[in-house]
Amino acid sequence: MGDDSVPLFLDQGTTKRYKILIDHLDYKFIEKCTDVKHLEKILRVLRSGEEGYYPELTLFCEKRVEHLDLRSRALRKDKPLATASDFTAEEWKTINDELMSWVTEMNEDYKKSQFLRTDTVHERQDNLPPIRCSSSCLPANQNKILQNNQRNKKNVPRDYSEWDKFDVEKECSKIDEGCEENNSKARFLSRPSQPVIKKKIDTTGMTKKEKIFIATHEKEKGNEAFAIGDYVEAVTYYTRSISVIPTAAAYNNKAQAEIKLQDWDSALQDCEKVLDMEPGNVKALIRRATVHGQLQNYQAAIEDLNKVLCIEPENAIAKKNLLQTEMKMKGLKPVSETQGKGKRILIRDIEDSEVDEERWENTEGCERSGGDKSYVRAGHFLCSWKCFRRQINLCNMRMPQGCGPLFVHPSFTRTIVSSDDASSNSLLNFLVEAGVPVRGEAAAEEEAMGNAQKKFHSKGGGGKGEDRDAQKQRESTECGLKKGTSEKKTQKRLSDHEGEVNGYLHSDRKTESPEAEKICRSQGAGSQPVAGGSSTSLPPIAAKLKSEGNELFKSGQFGEAVLKYSEAIEYVIGLGEQSPDDLSILYSNRAACYLKEGNCSDCVQDCNRALELQPFSLKPLLRRAMANESMERYRQAYIDYKTVLQIDSSIQAANDSANRITKTLIDQDGPSWREKLPPIPVVPVAAQLHRWDGGNEENKPRSTTDTNREEQLQMNSEEKFKTLKNEGNDFVRKGKYEEAVNKYSECMKLNTKECAIYTNRALCYLKLNKYEEAKQDCDHVLQIEDSNIKAFYRRALAYKGLQNYQASVDDFNKVLLIDPNVLEAKKELKEVTQLLNRDSSAGASGPQKQRKKITIQEVTEPDEQEGRHFATSEDVVTDHATSKEADQEDVPLKTSEKLCISEPSNAYDFGQIINAVNINKDKAACADLLTITDPKKLPMLLGNKLEGEIFSIFIQSLEYYVVGKDPGLVYQHLFYLSKAERFKVVLAFLSKSEKEQVFKRDLQLIRSMQIRLCFTSKMPILFFGHGGKAVVDFNVLIVEVVGNARPLVKPTH
Amino acid sequence: SGSGLERPQLVTYVQQALSYTLFDCKWLPRSARLLCLGSSARGTGLLQLYELQGGRLALLREIEKAKPIKCGTFGATSLQQRYLATGDFGGNLNIWNLEAPEIPVYSVKGHKEIINSIDGVGGLGIGEGAPEIVTGSRDGTVKVWDPRQKDTPVANMEPVQGENKRDCWTVAFGNAYNQDERVVCAGYDNGDIKLFDLKNMSLRWETNIKNGVCSVEFDRKDVYMNKLVATSLEGKFHVFNMRTQHPTKGFASVSEKVQKSTIWQVRHLPQNRDIFMTSGGAGSLHLWKYEYPAQRLKKDSEEAEMGLVGSVSLLQNVTLSTQPISSLDWSPDKKGLCVCGAFDQTVRVLIVTKLNKV
After folding, report:
1. Is the CB of residue A607 less than 8 Å from the CB of residue A591?
2. Among all residues of chain A, which has the CA nearest to that of B292?
3. Bridge partners of residue B21, in order along the sequence
4. CA distance A553 to A329
5. Which DSSP string corresponds to A360-426?
6. Each residue's pLDDT tens digit, B92-131
7. What is the DSSP string of B283-327?
8. Domain count, chain B
9. CA terminus-to-terminus distance, chain A
10. Where are the WD repeats (chain B) (predicted)?
11. Which residues contact A422 (CB under 8 A, 6 or more apart)?
12. Which of A109, A418, A784, A739 is nearest to B82 (CA)?
């Protein structure tokens, strides 16, 4: 230590080297100095010992340099070679053993290879390419020989300048005219962007070991190319590796590269090859799931991910993807088969809605009338939450084709609510729309096919099993309904309604599952002799083919399923036995495949065949109708739908499609459209099923709604209940929680069993910081429904407010027990656990904590840009906790930011980043992404993936991060966003609630952003809402950059 | 130093003192054997074959030849034959069957003076196209040979008559990703680097790095030309992005100053082209990693593509000797195993750990 103080006494001015002030060789100076260059010099002086030997100061200086610049060259020190003693005994043993075994293996191999080395060597020689410019060249290279000979004659080597003067073009044209251009250009620049590389390696005469060496080598090349994003090259090298030895690893890597190239089909094939070799290969499973997800085969994706989780329960990627896939799937799939599953979906949505208030109110308050066109019919809101969820699910299916995965946007629910006469049609329109060759129904259909598959194995009993299942389901749903209803009438009404939904579902099953088809028939009047018995008549080989076909269909490989079915058909026909039933089903199944592939004409053909064999079978009729509809042959489609409805009027899809087509036909043919229709075949009574109330509804598709209307009259109290509840929801939406509480309380007088009212009121109480009351409401709900996740969640929040952290933790745990995927609950749980762990005295009071939740969302958004000037004095108290929270969130955020650093090269990458961003709600990352993304590319990158949430996060990040820096870019982004494929659809689904309010609040903000928005005479069109809501309306969007008006989208109406 | 151990470590596995000057050492492919090439005290050439046996190097064979052997390569031989091609002080290119080393299977007096450097391609499953050997000599010429063609090279690169002949210190093959494409890169004592395109028989590019070029190597010989590292006399090395050639500016590069002394060798890890080791005049070894830039090319104002270059980071450095380390070779079969020969007449087998984690 004494040494270190020496410099202080030496006051000689500067050092010999670098002329540094002696004073700088001091702890205090070094500690404060931030000039790395200067510090490096100091370090060199210290190390040189020219000014004395100060080991500790030197060390201190090194540390300081390291702190400032980890990569500083001054830090590089000559180090001696490590020896065995530098490792732990264990490490060294591993290293040593590994090497030893390699050495032994190699030496043994070497000895073996000496015996083997014989004439194979010469074989290899024959495969070699010709000698450069040599006389042994093939005739094609004659010119080259000449040239070479000349050179040989001269025997004077060519010098550099000669090299340069060498007329490549001339020479090349002599050699090979085809290559001329390429060569000449290649000389300086513009080499082919994708080099031509052989995809196969000649392995003639190679021993196994050699092959392994080559295969590994090529795979390594592939890995390197992959690592820097040369995916095409990577695929080539993997292919080469596989051509030598097909290994699971190479296939697996190739699949990953193909995923990057969005070559889904090849990726799928490769994943399957890996899984053939290694059925439990986790990576391959995850990759296949990704591919399935991209191909919209969510069911298959989920199966794969579940397999992964069976093998590695903690696999984070699989968990995340599973969650995403399920969310996507939810957007497509109708009611899940098991109640458990259905519940999970339901819960997640609630929790989503908990994420922010507005959204909550959208989902929860959806029952309220949507303002203009959508209003709710009496009784509708009474359906239990589950019932409601079903509708949502059904509605989700409406996503027209190409929509891709769509998270359920809350505002969606608004559309669903409109299940009155007109809009129920529209709702169902969507269903069928989705059923057209693409998407939507795919999941449902797969599901059904999956079912069929399962049933198929159980053969004879299958029919009954199915029936039982269906019944069970109906029972359970009705059970659910009972809870929510008080009056018998209502219940009846509801079960009717439920029947509608179920009816659709059942029909869906009937429509889609080959086996179920028979069940339908057997169910029908019970008088059909054909029934299930005939199903056994399929010869085993054909049955196997069919089941394979079904399996393939289920996994979305429609093309291959077609092959299987075709084989089965050929086989059955070849047998000559008359089994029209089975043949018909096979045709019908193949038709389903064609329909999926979009091959409508073949679909129609197959349906025709199926119907020849089995007239009036439902599925072929429906499929033919769908195919015809996609081919815009509306009349034929109409006839088929009508026929279907004669057979089973409960098939909503048909009902709805018929209505839709009616409209189209009226548009097309005018009022006399009916006259142009071919005659509708009359379905024999024996073929009719499910005749509603004995009436002749076949020709009156709206008759069910007529009966409904009658019932409606008897439901005054319900209507009142509904109105009250709607009013309550309205108040919640406006933030008037007191009033909402009053309304809900009135509701309760009418109906004490409607849990939603209690959970809603509980939420109001939470907002009002009346935690005790909130808790009581939740308790009440939990008495009725002991697993109401919302109630648990809100009670947990209430306990938190009451500072009863232990109880809060318990409740959050219950929430997570019911659905482990509720992110909000996880987050809250973490927070509360911290509070619990900290001493309770430090805990802030309830209201602050409640507020904290909000501040987390809002304060973290503006981040560096806006600073925290939103924070009120109250927030300050909680700021500490907030920032801590934010810190903890850092990890996932960072990963997503990392993703954003590079500009996404293709839509897939972009989609991945967006998903990550969306999950974390990481607006900063999103802003980064948008900053580096060329706005022009936006529509391309988004493809058909634009959805409400993404739109919303885009708008928010543009608002918070980008607009301040570059308003022009914001304009560009908005402009091109409007060009995105699904922009209008998304617009239509975005909430327009609170527009006046939010508008007023944000006008200033908008002004400050230098972007003024134009409004039509009626409504604000687009503006940046507050707190994360982009409010958009009316399919019209005009943004005006101040002083330079440029409409984004012209008003369409 | 907990974090220090997470980085790759260089460990001596075996070292063997020799009684002669070692110029080059090479692993025999698909074996745990290595060759040491050099010059005996009497001025003859020596070729020793060692085998790793347990924790030691066992000398299997010693062959003495007339001229000191400067360099060798297996690059143009098949995985089965494993013939060694050598260049000696007399300018001779010889190819040896190590099983019968008495007479070379191929021999040519290729150069008037010492062959400083040799490289091979098209063998060992590395590089499409014909097996070829390139030699660079003090006589200023670079010649490409096909072992199937006796006496004359298949390509010859030398300066115009009367022009100053530069000593060629190093040669390397690259771009051999298909049967047609192939380049040779040569480095000279005056800092010139020349890139010869063998397909078009043209001088494709040249540059000068101011100091004598001791060693050049492509990150891989058998891929669409990606990177080239060139080391220099004054302790610097340059990494060139060889993917994109600008019409006037050529290839983009980044340079790194290692130390004051010469960097004698650069060798890329055969199993990962983005990791390479340099050996220095002061007996030191540096292990580097190249990090790619976010974008590897951009368009200049005239819409011509120009390459962008990333950065290199030092993974580890050690000092083994006071004498220059003149030769370095990674085992093609065992990742992380390498051999180096120094002028302190010692051959060392090293293990580089944790290369998978880099």
Report:
1. yes
2. A228
3. B39
4. 17
5. HHHHHGGGS--SSS----TTGGGS-HHHHHHHHHHHHTTS-TT--S----TTHHHHHH--SHHHHHH
6. 999 999 888 889 999 999 899 999 999 999 888 788 888 9
7. SEEEEEEEE--S-SEEE-TTS-EEE---EEEEEEEEE--SS-EEE
8. 1
9. 84
10. 133-146
11. none
12. A109
* Shortest Cα–Cα distance, B30 to chain A (Å): 7
CATH of residue B203's domain is: 2.130.10.10
Pairing of strands B132-137, B115-121: antiparallel
Residue B243 lies in a domain: yes
ipTM of the complex: 0.88
CB contact under 8 A, B351 and A157: no
**At which residue do the structure tokens 């038709």 appear?**
A591
Q: Let me know: does B263 contact B285? Beta carbons within 8 Å.
A: no
Cα angle B60, B61, B66; round to 5: 165
Rounded Cα–Cα distance for residues B155 and B144 (Å) = 5
For residue A11, the surrounding DSSP H or E stretch is none
Question: Quick one: angle between helices A208-227 and A248-260, nearest 10?
Answer: 20
- Beta-carbon contacts of A650 under 8 Å, excluding residues fewer than 6 positions away, are A499, A500, A503, A504, A506, A507, A690, A692
The phi, psi pair for A554, rounded to 5°, reads -60, -40
At residue B87, φ and ψ (nearest 5 deg) are: -120, 140
**Quick check: is B4 in a domain?**
no
Closest CA–CA distance from residue B69 to any residue of chain A (Å): 25
Cβ pair A207:B80 closer than 8 A: yes
Please list every residue in chain A whose beta carbon sits closer than 8 Å to the beta carbon of residue B270. Answer: 217
Contacts of A892 by beta carbon, 8 Å cutoff, 6+ apart: A919, A920, A922
Q: Note whether residue B62 is domain-resident.
A: yes
Residue A160: closest C-alpha in chain B: B159
Q: Which of A106, A149, A900 to mutate to test the interface with B (most CBs of B within 10 A)?
A: A106
Block means of pLDDT (10 residues each) for chain A, length 1053 residues? 44 67 79 81 79 80 79 70 75 84 84 58 60 45 34 42 49 40 39 68 78 87 87 89 88 89 87 86 85 82 84 81 78 46 33 32 35 35 39 41 36 36 41 37 39 38 41 44 41 40 38 39 37 52 82 80 84 73 84 83 86 81 86 83 79 79 80 76 62 40 45 61 80 81 80 78 84 85 79 86 83 80 79 71 40 36 36 38 39 39 68 75 76 77 72 71 66 70 64 42 42 35 37 35 36 38
Chain B: residue nearest A170 by CA?
Answer: B200
> Which candidate from A84, A132, A190 shows the least CB-CB separation from B154?
A132
Q: Is residue B32 part of a domain?
A: yes
State the amino acid at position A586 in one-letter form: L
Look up the domain containing B307 and give its range: 9-353
Q: What's the rounded Cα separation, in Å, for the pair A409 and A762? A: 23
CB pair distance less than 8 Å for B158 and A110:
no
Is there a contact between B130 and A221 if contact means CB atoms under 8 Å apart? no
pLDDT of residue B25: 94
Chain A residues within an 8 Å CB radius of B272 = 220, 224
Say yes or no for a CB contact (<8 Å) between A103 and B197: no
Q: Is B204 helix (H, G, I), strand (E, B) or coil?
A: strand
CA–CA separation, A756 vs A764, rounded Å?
12
Give me the DSSP letters along A671-721. Answer: GGGGGGSPPPPPPPGGG-B--GGG--GGG-TTHHHHHHHHHHHT-HHHHHH
Q: Which amino acid is at A713?
A: L
Q: How far is B200 from chain A (nearest CA, A)?
A: 6
* Integer Cα distance of A992 and A423 in angstroms: 19
How many CB atoms are located within 10 Å of the residue A983 CB? 21
| Residue among A651, A404, A400, A636 at smallest CA distance from A510 | A651
What crossing angle do the helices spanning A618-630 and A600-613 adopt, rounded to 10°? 150
- Is the model's pLDDT at B12 over the cut of 80? yes
